[in-house]
From TrEMBL, chains A, B:
Catalytic activity: 2 S-adenosyl 3-(methylsulfanyl)propylamine + spermidine = N(4)-bis(aminopropyl)spermidine + 2 S-methyl-5'-thioadenosine + 2 H(+)
Protein name per its UniProtKB record: N(4)-bis(aminopropyl)spermidine synthase
Keywords annotated in UniProt: Cytoplasm, Polyamine biosynthesis, Transferase
UniProt cross-references to SUPFAM superfamilies, sorted A to Z: S-adenosyl-L-methionine-dependent methyltransferases
Function: Involved in the biosynthesis of branched-chain polyamines, which support the growth of thermophiles under high-temperature conditions. Catalyzes the sequential condensation of spermidine with the aminopropyl groups of decarboxylated S-adenosylmethionines to produce N(4)-bis(aminopropyl)spermidine via N(4)-aminopropylspermidine.
Gene3D superfamilies, per the entry: Vaccinia Virus protein VP39, Winged helix-like DNA-binding domain superfamily/Winged helix DNA-binding domain
Database matches in Pfam families: BpsA_C (PF01861)
Species whose genome carries this gene: Hydrogenobacter hydrogenophilus
EC number: 2.5.1.128
Biological pathway: Amine and polyamine biosynthesis
Amino acid sequence: MSLLTELAIKAREESQVRIYKKNVERVLSALLKSGDFWQIVDMSDLPVPAASGIVKVLIKEGYAFIDDEENIRLTQKGYDLIKELGIEPYVDYTCQACEGRGIPFYIDIEFYRTFIQLTKDRPKAIRDYDQGSVTPETTVSRVLFMDSRGDLRNKDILVLGAEDDLTGLAVALSRKAKSVLIIDIDKRLIDFDNNIFKELGIDNAEARVWDLRNPFPSEILGRYDVFVSDPPETLPAFRAFIGRGIATLKEEGGVGYFGLTLRDSSVFRWRDFQIALTSEFGVAITDIVQDFNAYITWDYHKETKAAQIAPVRREPKDIWYRSSWYRIEALPGFKRWNEAISDDVFYLDEEGSTT
Amino acid sequence: MSLLTELAIKAREESQVRIYKKNVERVLSALLKSGDFWQIVDMSDLPVPAASGIVKVLIKEGYAFIDDEENIRLTQKGYDLIKELGIEPYVDYTCQACEGRGIPFYIDIEFYRTFIQLTKDRPKAIRDYDQGSVTPETTVSRVLFMDSRGDLRNKDILVLGAEDDLTGLAVALSRKAKSVLIIDIDKRLIDFDNNIFKELGIDNAEARVWDLRNPFPSEILGRYDVFVSDPPETLPAFRAFIGRGIATLKEEGGVGYFGLTLRDSSVFRWRDFQIALTSEFGVAITDIVQDFNAYITWDYHKETKAAQIAPVRREPKDIWYRSSWYRIEALPGFKRWNEAISDDVFYLDEEGSTT
């Protein structure tokens, strides 16, 4: 058995999450680039418990140590290992113009400015609902992405459980949709949106408080061309947000957008999601754009499991939490799932940690 | 039943491929932007037979006509329909810096120049093997993408059935892989690569002639960290290229890259591919970047079924054929498929047309 595989097994015991050899390799590669734990999580595309488990095992086995400034540094033994295995530093070729999304957020600069201006007093992300806001550049890019795929103009659009990002507000502000319904559990966000709609005389958009653990009323089902969401990465939450989102689509050809991260779920979980999407719900996946969604570190970071299990106490200095952007298309015979969810692992399970 | 749905049903009868309402809408949206049939195919993200069927039905029903220069134009009845349905022109927000790939091809400008210089006398794409070369910018971006995901440096890499794009050559020229094996059916390309390797003294790369309809010999199975391919979009070819590619991976965490297009297969077929990947082969899909791969129109275009079924005789003037870029990761228990294929629909079926 290779040394990396042995380390992976130890890290798995340490963290109780699925880890294989390649994950250890990516953490070592990241360590050649940065000593900041949160940057290492970002570069290695791993759930926090996995990255933390690997770093802890590397320290325990003498390959790394924590310096006075809480940087994680390689020891000589660590450098020797890296040389022996031919591991090289993480490289980042992300396009600076579009931040890697393939679509530049500034292409409609007036739209971007309006969004920034109107949302400067937005409600802060709070822990109760697993909130975390994406950057305004991300939110605006989501709307542009939808527009470039023909999923915005004159469409009936439902935004569910993603309003901490103010995505529904941005869709409404584009003034290109036929109608916009925003569903969120957080009354602060619903009021924020409805006030802006009233103020600007936007009468085709509406925001309503709803707990997605409850089934949708029948008037919402089968009524939308497009839904947008940003679910927590547990399987029950995925069903509640995405299964229910699909249930609101009018017909085949209906479209869904949502973020999925590798920071709170593994690539193993991703396969489960993908099997559910294609085999159970009857949709095709047309896009997965990694690192499309960049999140502003939430004020409640210190209180999270992520902060507690991290090998260092130092807080994130920059953006470290990203998610990919999925687009799906409903095919004939797609399934409308709308059952009640009463699961206590709705927000958090063994791979998640940022709630 | 809506008028668009009626048109979709008629187009389906006309073309004998799966078409739904949304597809008709996208073609109408494209028609507001261009009269060039090949640009319409590009913008509507449809298989050629589907786009052609829709255009033919629109003409038959009086919504469009073909002008003297073989442009497809809307009639007044067509404009009335578009207005009634609120269809707006196709919009394109593709990042000009990275051509929408998220990674700029010029980030290592020396590498790009070397590739251009060495490949200026490359063999032309020929019809026998369903060839079609991507632009040099695409090929170089593929290598940069692999590098940025940790799938290049010191890796054993297999490039199978994608050498019309000279992807294996580019991987070898990066001089970052541990070893490169290139497999292709076309001896011209194999000789071209091997000559360059000899000339430049690249001794960790080798090219070999192989027909992927035949199973791999055992020495190739389970030997690679990463495979790269570009399969024809039939189900038998998908198994032969991608199933066999997965069979060559050393272990869990192994990675595959390949192009899949919506010009020669529908989103229905994509779901079949995705079910095979996740449920049968045991891999997770980590990336789907639409329009990553841009193809230079092949010299044999006139001889293709695409040219024959098109509503106009006019040839493509610009790039119109694109494919998405998939990345997959093998999970524990992944399946090594390596059976013989003797299928006469290897290159072409009802949705394909560019062979």
